[in-house]
Amino acid sequence: MPASPDDLFAFLDRLDIVHKTVAHPPLFTVEQSQALRGTIPGGHTKNLFVKDKKDKVFLLVAPEDATIELKSMHRLLGGSGRFSFGSAELMRELLGVEPGSVTPFGLINDKEIRVNVVLDRAMMDHEILNYHPLVNTMTTSIGRADLVKFLKATGHEPRLETLSAEPALRPRG
Fold this sequence. Notes:
Blueprint (H helix, E strand, L loop, with lengths): L4 H10 L5 E4 L6 H4 L9 E9 L5 E7 L6 H8 L6 E2 L2 H8 L19 E6 L7 E4 L6 E6 H10 L5 E3 L12
Parallel strand pairs: 2-6, 3-5, 5-8
Antiparallel strand pairs: 1-7, 2-3, 2-4, 6-7
C-alpha cells in the first residue's frame, strides 16, 4: 500500500525537515494552482512523469512556467528514443499517486529506485519549493536543500539539469 500524506509527514519529521502544509480544493493543473499564489509563497512547480522507448522512467521537476521540450529531452538525459508520458497505472505503481498529484514526494513509494529524478536548475533558485504531499488537495512547502535531503533519503540521487527550453521566471524576493 502506498504511503499516505501522514506517512510522508512522519518521514519528513524523522529527517528533521521543516515543512508546512496548506489544504485547498483539488488542483489538477498548473493553471488551477496559480490561484493560490498569494496564499503559498515560494517556487511552484510542474512535475512530468515520463518514460523512454525502453521504459526507463523519469520524473522531471521544473518551475511551473518552464517550457519542457519532450521531443528532444531524451538526448539531454540519455533516454532511448523520445519521451512519452507514463501511464496512470505506472504512476500508481511507482509513485503511489493519481494523475494530477505527481510530486517528487511520490518517490517515497519507489522502493526499487526505478524512477530517475531530474531537477531543473531554475527551480532550485527558489529557497522554498512547493509540492503536493501525494494528494492534490494539499500543498507542502520545504526548503530546496531539504528536497535534496528527502530525495537522497528515499535512495534517489537527483540530477540537476537545465530542462527549460526558455528561461523560467526568476524568484521574486
